[in-house]
Design a protein that fits this description.
Two copies of one chain form a homodimer. Chain A is built from 13 helices and 18 strands. By secondary structure, chain A is an alpha/beta fold. The interface between A and B is large, with 62 and 63 residues. Chains A, B: Pathway: Amino-acid biosynthesis; L-methionine biosynthesis via de novo pathway; L-homoserine from L-aspartate: step 3/3; Amino-acid biosynthesis; L-threonine biosynthesis; L-threonine from L-aspartate: step 3/5.
Chain lengths: 429, 429
Amino acid sequence: MGVKLGILGLGTVGTGTVQLLQDKIDRHPLLQEIEIYRVGVRSPNKPRQVELPAGVVTTDLEAIVNDPAIDIIVEVMGGLEPTRSLILTAIKNGKHVVTANKAVISRFGAEIFTAANAAGVYVMLEASVGGGIPVIQPLKQSLSVNQIHAITGIVNGTTNYILTRMQTEGSDFDDVLADAQSLGYAEADPTADVDGLDAADKIAILASLGFGGRINLADVYCEGIRQVSKTDIAYATKLGFVIKLLAIAKGQNHDRSQLSVRVHPTLVPQSHPLATINGVYNAILVEGEPIGQVMFFGPGAGAGATASAVCSDILNLVATLKTDTSKAHPLLACSHQHYCQISPISELVSRFYTRFLTKDQSGVIGKLGTIFGKYDVSLESVVQTGFQEQLAEIVVVTHDVKEGDFRKALAEIKNLAAIDSIPSILRVL
Amino acid sequence: MGVKLGILGLGTVGTGTVQLLQDKIDRHPLLQEIEIYRVGVRSPNKPRQVELPAGVVTTDLEAIVNDPAIDIIVEVMGGLEPTRSLILTAIKNGKHVVTANKAVISRFGAEIFTAANAAGVYVMLEASVGGGIPVIQPLKQSLSVNQIHAITGIVNGTTNYILTRMQTEGSDFDDVLADAQSLGYAEADPTADVDGLDAADKIAILASLGFGGRINLADVYCEGIRQVSKTDIAYATKLGFVIKLLAIAKGQNHDRSQLSVRVHPTLVPQSHPLATINGVYNAILVEGEPIGQVMFFGPGAGAGATASAVCSDILNLVATLKTDTSKAHPLLACSHQHYCQISPISELVSRFYTRFLTKDQSGVIGKLGTIFGKYDVSLESVVQTGFQEQLAEIVVVTHDVKEGDFRKALAEIKNLAAIDSIPSILRVL
C-alpha cells in the first residue's frame, strides 16, 4: 500500500530527510503513505540523531538499488562514484530517483536522464540547487511557457557569507575564510565553494532547465572569489556596487541559441534585487518573456531546508504514483536531446572594473586610454583613486566591451613601463 | 488530438493569454498541442490586439462552458457573476478550469472546489495571486511537506507603488493617488486596491493553501492605506522602518489551528526582506518548518506576467491530461474540508506605532504611561517629536501587546483633556 523508500546516505541531509519523514503530524497527509524501507550507510555503528527500526539500516547500497520492493531511491550520499552507478542501477530497475547531488547531475545528467526516459522513471532534483528554495519545479512548471532570457543566481552560501562579511567588516578574504571555517560555514577544504565549482555545477543545471538543452560542464567558465580584495570592495561601494559571486546563464546578444554560462565575482549595482541578498542566503533571478523578472530567495543550504526540497520531491513522486498512470508527465520528465551552444568567455560582452598599480602617474592615464582605444574598449570612468606605498592606484570602469578585446588591451598595458601590476579585473553586471 | 480551450474574456489578461498561446516559437513544445477553440467576449466588434480565426469569437459564454468539445475553460473575464455560475457549469460539464479571479475564488472557493472534486477536474489559480510570480504551485507542491507558520506578502502593486512614491518623494497620499490614476497604475475607482480588499482576497487564498483549510473571507481583517500620512512615513524612517501594506496569515501564538489573517499598513524593519520591495512589484515571504524563510518576488500584475501564470497553468493541465489517468493528482486537487479558525483582530498580539496630538505637553507623557500601564500595554519608546501648529506631537511604539487591550487604553486616552487627536495607529512587524 505504502510507497517504499531506499535512502542512500545518512549524513546531514539524509538525517534531516529522515527526521522530516518521521515527523508526520500536522503535515501533508500523503506523508502517511511513505515508508522508510532501507537506509544505506557506510558506518552502521556511528551514533545517529535518528532512530530507525531494526533491519532498515544497511551497508549494502547495491542491495538497496536492486531491491524490487523499493519504489523510490533518495540519493543524499553525495560524491560522484559509486553514486552515479547506484543511480543508474536504480533507474534500470525502474525506480524513481530523488537526488540532492548537483555534482552528479551537472556531470552525468545526460546519461542519467537518457536512462530515466528509457526506463520511464523520474529523476527529481529540487535540492540540488538553492537548498530549500523552490526553483527547479518553478522552472519546469510554473514558468514553463516563458522564453527564459537569463538566470542570474547567488547559489553558493559560503562565498556569499564571506563576501558579505568582507563588505560589512572591511576584512580580508583570508581572515574571513579562516573564521568561516572555524564557525562551520566553510569546509576545511574550501575549494569547491570559493573557487566557484559548486556554483558552476548549479548554474549548469539551471541553464539546462531554463534554455531547454544539455550543458557541457566543461564549457561553463568559472572564476572564484580568492582574488577579491577588501580594497576592491571599498572602491565598488564608492562606485555604487556590491561584489557578489554570481552564476549567470544568458543568451549571448539576445540569442537564446548561443549561451554564455559562467561563474565569477561581479560588481552588482546596489539597486539590483540580488545586491541585498546577504549572508548564507541564496537567490535566483529569472528573466524571461513575458514574465519579466522573478526572484526566488531563501536558505541555500542546511539540513532542514535541503530536507524540505528532498521530501517535497518525494511527495510529488508519491502523488504522481497515486495517479496510477503509465504515461510520463511531460513537465516532470526531461525532454532535452541536444546540447546548448555555449560561447567561450572571450566572446562575452560585459562591463569591466579593473584596478591598476602604476609606478609613475604622469601620462599613464593617457597611455591607458590610447591602448584601450586601439582595441575598441570604450571607458565609462578612469579615476586615480590614491596611493599604495609608492604606487598610484587607478580604477577603470569600461562600457560594454568584448572580453577578448579587453584582454588583448590588458596584455599590451601590462607591458607598459609605468604599470606595476593589475591586481583586480572584475566584471560588472 | 489537441487540447481545446474556451477562453472567457478578452480584456488585458485575456489578450495577453491569447498572444502568448499564439506565439509558440522557441517556447515549450507542448504549446503546439493547444487550440484556442472559443473566446467569449461581451462586445464582438471592439477592436482587438489579437487576430482569431472566424467563428472563434462569440458572445455566447454559456455555449462555451457547455460545449462538449472544450477541455479547459480559461476564465479571465473577472467579476463575480456570471463568472461564478459559468465556472460551476464548466466544472459540472467535466471541464478543467484555469482562473485569474481572486475575487471569485476567495468568496466561492469552497463551492467551486467541492464541485471540482466531485467532477474529478482541476481548478488552477496561479494567476490569482502575485500576477506572474510562481507562489500557488510552490505552496501546493515544492513546499508541500513543510508546516507553514506564516505567509506575509506585498500582494497589491497599486498600493505598493503609492507607498513607495510617498516614501521617496515625501508626498501625500491623495497627490500620489491622483498621479497614479493618471498614469494608469491605479483605477478610477481605487477602492479595491487602496482599501485593501484585493489584498484580502489574495491572502485568503494563500492562507487556505498554507494552512490547509478553507478561509471565510469575512473573517479576514482589512485596513487600507488612506490613513497613512507622509508624517508617519517620515517618523517610521527615523525609527528604522518603512511602511508597507502587508497581507499576513499567521498561526496565532505559534498555534497553526488558530490563525490571524489580516491586511493592514505595517511598519516593516528596514532590514526585513520585504522592506526593499518597491514600486509595483509584489513579494510573498513564506515561513515554515523546516524550510525557514523563502521569498517569491516579481511583477504582481500586467498582461504579460499574468498571462505567464495563466498559460503555465494551462500547460500543466495539458501535461496532466497527457498522462491519461482517471485518478486525481493529490497535489493538484484541493483536499480541504474544514474551515480554518480565525481569531478576531482584538486577539492579535502585535507591536503598535501611534501618533498623538496633544494640547498641553506637561504631564501628558506621564498620563499616557499610566493608562497604558493599566491595560498591560508595555511601551518600547515614547518620543515627543515636535509641534504641529499649537499641538505637541508624541509618537509611541509599544512592545507586543494584545490589540484589544491596546484599543481599550486608547479609548480611555482619547478622553483625556490634553489629547487633541490620535491621527495614526499602525501595527509594527
